[in-house]
Amino acid sequence: MPSAHWNGRLIAESDETVIVEQNHYFPLAAVRAEYLEESATETGCPWKGTASYYTLLVDGQRNPDAAWYYADPKPEAEQIRGRVAFWRGVEIRA
């Protein structure tokens, strides 16, 4: 089952991830919300839309903008609505 780990903690785990551009998008319900902190960062993707970010906060350590999601993806990316992906040192175990 795919899982996401950072700073020695399990951040997310689900057998229902969607892979887009080699990134596992986890259902939001599979992500441990206590490790997520809203970020003001946004970026744009020509085919997916506007990405919003979370900072990971685990045991007093911060990983800024290490998770992203598309709250309102473009139609071509509808399969990632309600899902979160990770980077910046977050280990994905598939």
Automatic annotation (TrEMBL):
<protein>
    <submittedName>
        <fullName>DUF427 domain-containing protein</fullName>
    </submittedName>
</protein>
<feature type="domain" description="DUF427">
    <location>
        <begin position="4"/>
        <end position="88"/>
    </location>
</feature>
<dbReference type="InterPro" id="IPR038694">
    <property type="entry name" value="DUF427_sf"/>
</dbReference>
<dbReference type="Pfam" id="PF04248">
    <property type="entry name" value="NTP_transf_9"/>
</dbReference>
<dbReference type="InterPro" id="IPR007361">
    <property type="entry name" value="DUF427"/>
</dbReference>
